[in-house]
Amino acid sequence: GNLNHNPLNADGTVNTAWWTQTSTPAWVAQAASPPAQVIEPWVQLNTATLAQTDISYPSGTGPAEENRTRNIFILPNGYLREAPQDPKAGSRTTLGGPTGLLYDDFTFENNFLISMTGNPLVFRFVADVSDTTLFDSMFVEGLAARIAMEVAEPLTQSAAKLQAIASEYKLFMTEGRIVNGIETGPTEPPEDDYLSVRW
After folding, report:
1. Which pLDDT tens digit goes with each residue over 130-140?
2. What is the reported pLDDT for 55?
3. Distances (CA, A) of 57 to 43, 63, 81
4. How many C-beta atoms lie closer than 10 Å to residue 84's C-beta?
5. Can the peptide bond before residue 76 be classed as cis, meaning omega within 30 degrees of 0?
């Protein structure tokens, strides 16, 4: 009788139109006698207490010593984006066996990195560096050309000068990317699961 019925009228009084004398009124607590006996539809709980519930965030993380849950790491200061963790790993495989870079399980949420890794994490990332003395010289050239592109039109009102600066900017950035690609080397993708399973 207490299922799918609103126990209150619009004015807040108890709605008794839908229950009869032989059924239980709306939301009336019933004492169990003996305590193990269940009286439908409600059972009075005399021993119920409130307890604080600590919800772990992010979901699925837990103590570091527990291997069934993931661990949470605070992202380092100045973090912008993830960089290849081991760009030149696995350059040589034996008979196609698993010797290369494995997939990682990193999940980024808010200012945290979530992973099943239980040990301290060695993490390569792109950083926001404000020390201009640490800038690469080719980056400085590209940055200067970019600033010149922004101020050329307001200062000179010359479309020809803006076009010349734009071509210089394109040249500097192309050269910088080529040199960076040579220094960094190829980034090998994680090893294919098919090879790992076959091995």
Report:
1. 888 888 889 89
2. 79
3. 35, 12, 22
4. 15
5. no
